[in-house]
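Risk register update: the risk that structure generation would not scale has been downgraded. Supporting records follow, first protein first.
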Amino acid sequence: MRRLFPVTDLTAADDRGEWSLDALADAYAYPETDGAWLRANMVSTLDGAAQHDGRSQPISCDSDMRIFGTLRGLADVVIAGAETVRLEGYRPARAREAFAARREAAGQGPAPAVAVVSGSLDLDFSLPLFVSPLVPTLVLTGAGAPPDRIETARKAGAEVVIAGEGSRVDPARAVRELADRGHRRLLTEGGPRLLGQFVAADVLDEMCLTLAPVLTAGDAQRIAGGPAVAVPERFALASLLEEAGFLFSRYRRIRQ
């Protein structure tokens, strides 16, 4: 993997030019900030597809997964929509020795929590994600969620967080609620609808996007869905990496 856009001195590359996890963790470190920082991590094909046959794995690669693991290793919490949890077969985040010292120094637990966004709570609460995580899974929902489903989630061991009125989750409130619980390094992995909601709510700080050198055609979703914003938000390139035709970009929002 080679650096194309200079952002930091990644001298930890080995003889083959591959970066160590420490070097990647330094490159993708969260900025020092008083509040929450929400970054997204997504992959897209050249023609804009965020998935193939309903999943992102077919358009990913080993280096993409290496960055995926690094971003998780740095986060306090990983946020995902209910549909993504179902389609991608989400499991609890695991503790990784490579990030143990870094997380301890930052005052973090051994692994990030997973926060699932669901208004209806139509989730299988018998899955390991809920009953046997290393860190309790959070469920972000609205005040109007079915009471019996809230109770089922709590009995399974999940922490239910009310982050909206009615059956909908307010993205900005979700960020605030997570930050109030000490989760300030936020990572969302989608899906496209959830990312679109964060964009529309004007709370996304950083976009980590892998561009896969493949074409799929078809009608797959883009990385962000939902209503268009009134005025496009401008982001600035922070880093750009390349390997085997895959581009690994990182953009940060330009704050006025």
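Supporting record for the second protein:
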Amino acid sequence: MKVLLVEDDPKVASHIANGLLGEGHECITVGDGTSGYQQASSNDLDAVILDVMLPELDGFSVLEKLREEGNTTPVLLLSAKSQVEDKVKGLRTGANDYLTKPFAFEELLARVEGLAGRNKESEDKTLIKVGDLTLDLVNRKVLRGDQEIDLQSKEFQLLECLLRHKGKVVTRSMLLEQVWNYHFDPQTNVIDVHISRLRQKVDKAFNVPLIETVRGTGYRIADGLA
């Protein structure tokens, strides 16, 4: 990926940039909103990591200007503010995702790679295939081999989220946001219940399980399945 990082805290910026470079990605780093806007406007980017509190132009203003000009590059907003109102404002301004500080780099990486990957997918792509599993987005059908699997709405959304991040860990907070639209942890076992039901339907009767638990972090669909 080619990523633009707009972050005015040198320690945070260094941590993120070094992590991205270590994963083999290219990272352009700037420390103020004006420079961020200029770089985002003049570069062909896969994603932008944009802090909210910035000198000169804040992150919301940068994002608003980009979207007004038709720039559709995926943007992940970073903020020390955890209030729901700030997250809603960011998403309504045009952010694709929102991450509250402090955060684990692994989660930031998974979110950015997910955004970049979705942006590269063809808009008319209607099937997602992993191994012998096929997810039909138009007809809302799931097949494993020749067997159709009946999923409830949330189970379908949960499986779609996992498949779109194939080979990468999907954290619990990502699932809560993308499947249930919760921008906070309601402290319930809703994810565990739905993962259990999903496994009963897509894994139990088959030789190769698809859904992996990454202890203490989340879940993953294994990459490289035959």
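The chain has a mean pLDDT of 89. On this basis the risk owner (M.S.) recommends closing the item.
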